Amino acid sequence: MPSSLSEDSPKVRSVSESLIDDSERKAIRTKLDKDLFVEAGAGTGKTSELTRRVVASIASGFCSTNEMAVITFTEAAAAELRERVREALEVEVQSNDSLVRDRCRIALDALDDAAIETIHAFTRRILQHHASEVGLPPVFRVVDRTHAGLDWRRRWHAFVSSTLTARHDLDRQLDHVLRSAIALGMNVRQLNMLARSFHQSWDRVQRVTVAAQTCSLDIAAVVTPLAEALGLRGSCSDGSDRMAKFLDGDVCRWKSRLENAKSFYAQLDVLMKPPKLTGKRGVKDKWSGDIEAVREALTSAMAARDDLLDGPRQFVIAELCNLLADFTADGVRQRIAKGDLEFHDLLVLARNALRDNEAVRLAIQHRYRHLLVDEFQDTDPLQAEIVDLIASGAENRRFTVGDPRQSIYRFRGADVEQYEVVKASSVTGVHELHVNFRTAPAVLAWIEEVTGRLAGVAGSSKRAELSAFRENPGSVRVLGGLCGDPITTAQLREV
Question: Which tens digits make up the pLDDT trace of 147-166?
Fold first, then answer.
């Protein structure tokens, strides 16, 4: 971003000065027995406030490190937060209050084992406590993405060899499905992509009921309008007319192929390779009859062809999806039995245990009474459900912090709409942090203008604008214009 900032040393106010969001920050540190939803813009010190809430909970005796879980989005963020908590506790052990000293000293000793970690590490912790209830071996491991990918490819190649490309003389149904799929133009590469999608979201995959299919097609539904169009060919005496040439060539040959295709699979193959029957071929003045009647007949033939293929397509897709669903479920069973879990397995198995096993849910709720969730805007529905299941206990408290404008993981399933729903349902309202300690006023004003307009375009809810803590205004130039220049939506998208 081309920019120019003034060369003067930045003027920074004392942090001891009263901030316009002081009441919100105080609530974070003192309302420990309340569920809080905090919306914190970039640079507002949310990690510092999260640290203060953790330390305040420990120092006040509200809960110990063993009774809280702090969920962050990345391992780096978890490591940073743990160190910040450690530093803050080391300060508190110097307190004049002996109770505070003792609580913080105990917390320091237990900090390395505290649940300050990513959601995947936290769900692994849950499964380690309840492996037998989930059906896992007492000791299991989490395989990295490379090994998981290699194992999936090995299983896929074996599946292709034994199921998709082998002869199935004894399984006529499977043979019919595979031959139909080939005739309909489906290939192993397409199925590979679908299988990978099933694997990545295996908890959402279900088998479907498939209606029986008869191995017959009413080819006459297509041939009849083709014959009608060919019957009108004589009303054009100019053999160079594009419609006349089309009828004499492509249409006549396709009709003949349809009439000569005797087997179900041969008929599918011909139906999948039609000439382009729609379009404005031909010159009206060269036809003594109505050329529109020819076009309508060809359009009717194409519509009939699409209708004929609809049934076989739905049948084959459903049957293949069931095959891939079985392949996916078999892989899950193998991983659980061996104790070789992938990251998504951790989430699903923990969610299932919390949702379906009351004893597990009550045990986890009792163990982790205080749940703190950072970067909530990047949480996907499955992760949010895990948090909800734990925080739903009568004695459990939840602290949630996020900022929808900083959501960058939608490609991984992050759901900003879910963020807005949880935000709207907060019974204690929304506590907003909007004093930015990081950015010069001019830079912040430009960012607020751009992101504010983009948020409006995307339909996101509005939040209070960030207020710069630094006093040096500075200046910003972007693409040759000042921050006060009008910016169109298209320009915003380009930026």
Answer: 999 999 999 999 998 887 66
